[in-house]
Each structure stands twice: as C-alpha cells, then as structure tokens.
C-alpha cells in the first residue's frame, strides 16, 4: 500500500511502522463509528434461525434496513450501537496489527525488494490477519455477544457492561471463553485480510498504472469499494460460522466444525450467506471510510514530520 524509495535505518523503519499502526488504528475506529449499525444488523441476521427466548419469538428480521428498523422499534436506537466500546477496543488492537504491519511483513517476505508478487502479498495478509486475531480475540467475542444481546422487556440481559462482560466470560468460561472461536476467526480474518489488502493493492496499482485516476481520494474510494465486495463474497460463510460459534452458550456446539455442520443440516447452504447484504454494505462502506481515512492520516502525519524536520 505504501511505496518505498531508499533504504531506511532501523530507527526510521520503527518510526514508520509506528505511524502505520497509529494511522490504521485511528482510521479503523473512524470506520467503526460510522458503519457499526450495519455490523450489528449483520450479526442479528446471521444468528437468526437459532433458538430464541420466548419474548423474542415473534421478532423477525428482514433485510439490513428492515433489521435496523425492527431493532429501533423494539429495543430503541441505542441497540444499533450495542458493543461499540468493545468494537473500538478491537480495532485499536486488531487493525493496528493487521493493516499497520502489512507493509512491513510484505517487505520482510520480499527481502526489502520494491516489487512484491501476488503470493507474497497473500502470505503477508494471512500472517498479519492471524497475528491480529490471536491478540484481539477477546474484544471480538465481547463485541459479538453485545450485538446479539436483545434489550427487551422480559429478557434477562446477558451482560451489563464491557468490563463486566470480560470478567463474566472469564469467571464462567475461563480463558478459553475469551478466545472462543479463535480458529474460525483466524480463518475468516486470514481470508478477509489477504483478500481485502491484496485486492486493494492490486486495484489501486492497476488504476495508477493505466492512469485512470491519480493517487488521491477517488482512487482510494474505488479500490476500497472493490476490495470490500470481493472480500464479502469469499469470507461470508466463515464469518457466519464465526459469529454463531462465538455467540453460542457453552455446550450448544462442540466445535466450529460442528456449528457449520449443524447450520448445513438444519438450515441448508443458504445459511452460510445469511446477512450477505449488510455484510457487503458494512464491509464496503467500512473499507471506503477506513482506507480513505488511513491514506489521509498517513499523509497528514508525513506532512507534520516533514514540517518538524524543516523547522529543526
């Protein structure tokens, strides 16, 4: 994503890595703040079809905007932002690693050569995606459970606050509970990360190579939107399994594989693409906001660095 010119010292390389990580974390939080209701709607659609409590049996979600409207009507507008705090915590930990370290890992695999092939990009994407999940999994578990939690009269709330949720999961399910669904999440995010970053890289390079657009906002917009669509198509089945498994109470599924098999036998193959439209709307819009913000924040940080060096 970032072009390299001349060799850098270790100190300059560390500073660049830190800038990349800070830029990625900040941009991802901006993306979450804007698109979080779409993500919540996606989660509700993905878990629809599982067993429901009595008070929620008559609630049926239809489409992304229908889901959001139903949630606002039955639970209030704040329900669209259930789990936002955990979501922002997740992005600070998660995006900083998976996006912020992508260029560094790619350069490591190429031996600091300027051009990276498609296999190297995919390998770098899978690597940073797996690293990020291993570190940030507890935040994802809490986020998903809050998004799935219904705020209805007559329905006991599973969790009352973000920190209470971490504590409750740890006390009742142990460390395994906080890292529940790590394998499907690593699979999902390795797919998402390599598809998202590699597709963004390739679309952006093609646009610039054929002089269709300059390296500016419209180019970043088109590249990010294209990356969002391709990523949603590839990662949606794993995403649904991940969401259901992480949200499930102890004992509902024996494993992520068992969760996928239960979905297939009880609901059919279309269950794996439940919530596809909100997934695409969310990932497409999130990609646009995140990548555009990421590019602009990087440029602003570079401009600030250059001004400071000039004054010195």
From TrEMBL:
SUPFAM superfamilies: Mitochondrial carrier
Species the sequence originates in: Merluccius polli (Benguela hake)
Subcellular location: Mitochondrion inner membrane
Catalytic activity: sulfate(out) + phosphate(in) + H(+)(in) = sulfate(in) + phosphate(out) + H(+)(out); malonate(out) + phosphate(in) + H(+)(in) = malonate(in) + phosphate(out) + H(+)(out); (S)-malate(out) = (S)-malate(in); chloride(in) = chloride(out)
Source organism superkingdom: Eukaryota
PROSITE patterns noted in UniProt: SOLCAR
GO cellular component assignments: mitochondrial inner membrane
Membrane topology qualifier: Multi-pass membrane protein
One Gene Ontology term from the biological process aspect of the record: transmembrane transport
Keyword terms of this UniProt record: Membrane, Mitochondrion, Mitochondrion inner membrane, Repeat, Transmembrane, Transmembrane helix, Transport
Solcar repeats: 15-108, 116-206, 215-300
Subunit-level organization: Homotetramer. Adopts an asymmetrical dimer of dimers functional form.
Main location: mitochondrion
InterPro entries: MCP (IPR002067), MCP_dom_sf (IPR023395), MCP_transmembrane (IPR018108), Mito_Metabolite_Transporter (IPR050391)
Protein purpose: Antiporter that exports dicarboxylate intermediates of the Krebs cycle in exchange for phosphate plus a proton across the inner membrane of mitochondria, a process driven by mitochondrial motive force with an overall impact on glycolysis, glutaminolysis and glutathione-dependent redox balance. Continuous export of oxaloacetate and related four-carbon dicarboxylates from mitochondrial matrix into the cytosol negatively regulates the oxidation of acetyl-CoA substrates via the Krebs cycle, lowering the ATP/ADP ratio and reactive oxygen species (ROS) production.
Protein name listed in UniProt: Dicarboxylate carrier UCP2
Listed Pfam families: Mito_carr (PF00153)
Family designation: Belongs to the mitochondrial carrier (TC 2.A.29) family.
